[in-house]
Design a protein that fits this description.
The complex is a heterodimer. By secondary structure, chain A is mostly helical. Chain A has one domain. Helices cover 66% and strands 4% of the residues of chain A. The longest helix of chain A is centred in the first third of the chain and has 35 residues. The chains are: A mainly alpha, B alpha+beta.
Chain lengths: 346, 179
């Protein structure tokens, strides 16, 4: 019984983590960009005169989105139009459930595993969910009955499918090195010492894959410098016909995909919940473990956010060239070298 | 005439530029530097130290607007040392005004040396384009555009019209509340 409750709590916790961090990211996005551009950033939303660095702006945003008119264009295909945001958001949230937020901790004579879905195919599950998430974008573009939305949807489909392939090719190398597709096992593999006091984190054993993955991951989240499907300045994108909370859901999807990518980077390349010199025992250890994982995710998100606000947008042919002509060959090469190394090493 | 062709060579891009990652890193260093320097400045100011502000933002409605020394703002009519308006109702400003926002009616001045003076002098700021021609045209230096006032919104159109005593600063402009 308690195990069923714990499982439910884990899944709810994962979704709550995703949704809350996504809301928080809205604030981070505004403030980080403002500070690095010598601005102040949004700071007007106040409750009883309290502004707290503009932390109430995400709440104001949500209130505004919820109270707006939910507009459905006449030309749209009703069912698909309504379903698209849910598909987009739902499947990106599902990815979160497979991330190992923490390892196994013994508490009260029982072993508690802090990975919501303990599957031997966690990596494949996340890749699959991300792939299904693309359908949300395509559906939104197709069902809106607007040329601009359709263009955005097509761009989104081309971009995300290209980078999906790259992502799989990149992750093949570390998965081969770790000898598993289980995300928890991957973290456990990385806890061994490497050399010079460094842990065997993926960033040290697979540096090329790390760089490629951050690039492809940033492209997968459809945010600047890869925001071609949105392209605010030209076509607005696949969600041009959406209003209110449905638009908000697409916005959330981008943030949650960022969290998923950051979580994957943390799990596969940054040793997940592992930190050399820290032992995780008892309830305090469990909290420490979750905090370590969350901190690493935040660090990666911070980097992604900085990239998003520093680089200009790619042209579409550059984007596809980057994927098919640069990242994919490099990833395959990396995979071959890794496979060869693993063969020699064994 | 023969067609001339000028070959423009493409800029040579080194491998380091083509790889792009190094350039991205250089760009990120710039933004990271701004981020951390500004964060430190915000923090130090939060602690009450007087350092360079972390943002160049002017929080306008809270802080006063900063206007340039030569900014053209609301008109102002000047007075002679004896307290009379300098304006001699020569109509040059009314004539040159491209927006036709100045309306002057003249009258006989009791001062023989002046001959004429403005009986009424109305400027409709709702029409004014703030070109500054009136101040330029004035032969007696009676009108300036340096009241340094930019918050001129009102709730009724007729309140946009500023009369002689208001422009001279003898009377405060009264603005009707929203209807």
């Amino acid at each position: 019984m308690s195990e069923a409750l714990f499982s439910a709590a884990k899944v709810i916790g994962a979704v709550a983590f995703g949704l809350n961090v996504a809301g928080f990211l809205g604030w981070v996005e505004r403030k980080q960009s403002a500070v690095m551009q010598d601005r102040v950033g949004a700071n007007r939303a106040a409750i009883f005169g309290w502004r707290i660095l503009g932390l109430f702006h995400p709440i104001a945003d949500a209130l505004k989105l919820l109270t707006k008119e939910d507009f459905i264009p006449k030309k749209s295909s009703r069912v698909l139009f309504q379903a698209a945001p849910s598909i987009s958001l739902g499947f990106s949230l599902a990815c979160l459930a497979a991330l190992p937020f923490g390892g196994a901790v013994e508490m009260g004579g029982k072993v508690w595993n802090f990975q919501p879905i303990e599957s031997p195919f966690g990596l494949v599950f996340i890749m699959a969910m991300l792939s299904v998430g693309i359908h949300g974008v395509m559906m939104a573009g197709y069902a809106s009955g607007s040329n601009y939305a359709l263009l955005g949807g097509l761009r989104g489909a081309a971009q995300m499918i290209s980078y999906e392939v790259c992502l799989a090719a990149i992750l093949a190398a570390p998965a081969f090195l770790y000898g598993t597709l289980d995300l928890q096992e991957m973290v456990l593999w990385q806890t061994r010492p490497l050399a010079w006091g460094l842990p065997a984190w993926g960033i040290f054993t697979q540096p090329l894959a790390f760089v490629l993955f951050v690039t492809a991951g940033a492209a997968l989240t459809k945010r600047t410098p890869f925001d071609l499907p949105e392209g605010e300045s030209e076509i607005v994108g696949y969600h041009v016909e959406y209003s209110g909370m449905k638009f908000g859901m697409f916005l959330m999807t981008d943030f949650i995909e960022s969290i998923v990518v950051a979580g994957l980077v943390t799990t596969v390349f940054l040793g997940g919940w592992h930190m050399p010199g820290l032992a995780f025992q008892g309830p305090a250890g469990a909290v420490l473990m979750l905090a370590t994982f969350a901190l690493k995710v935040f660090a990666v998100l911070f980097l992604l956010m900085q990239i998003r606000w520093s680089l200009p947008r790619f042209r579409f042919d550059q984007l596809l060239d980057l994927s098919w002509k640069n990242i994919l060959p490099l990833a395959l090469l990396n995979f071959l070298v890794t496979a060869w190394g693993v063969y020699l090493w064994q | 005439m023969a067609v001339t062709v000028r070959a423009v060579s493409r800029p040579a891009r080194s491998l380091r530029v083509q790889i792009y990652l190094w350039e991205v890193w250089k760009g990120l260093l710039v933004t990271f530097r701004h981020l951390f320097v500004n964060l430190c400045r915000h923090l130090l100011r939060g602690l009450g130290l007087r350092v360079v502000p972390g943002a160049v933002t002017i929080q306008y409605p809270d802080d006063p607007a900063m206007l340039g020394r030569r900014a053209r703002t609301r008109h102002r009519l000047l007075k002679r040392p004896d307290g009379e308006p300098r304006c001699t109702a020569c109509m040059l400003c009314e004539t040159i005004c491209p927006a036709k926002c100045i309306r002057i009616t003249a009258e006989e001045s009791p001062d023989v040396m002046v001959e004429k003076r403005a009986k009424t002098f109305d400027i409709d700021l709702g029409l004014c384009v703030f070109c500054g021609y009136c101040a330029e045209a004035c032969p007696v230096d009676a009108i300036h555009m340096d009241a340094n006032e930019v918050e001129l919104s009102v709730f009724r159109r007729q309140d946009m019209i500023w009369s002689l005593p208001e422009l001279l600063g003898d009377k405060k402009k009264e603005i009707a509340p929203p209807a």
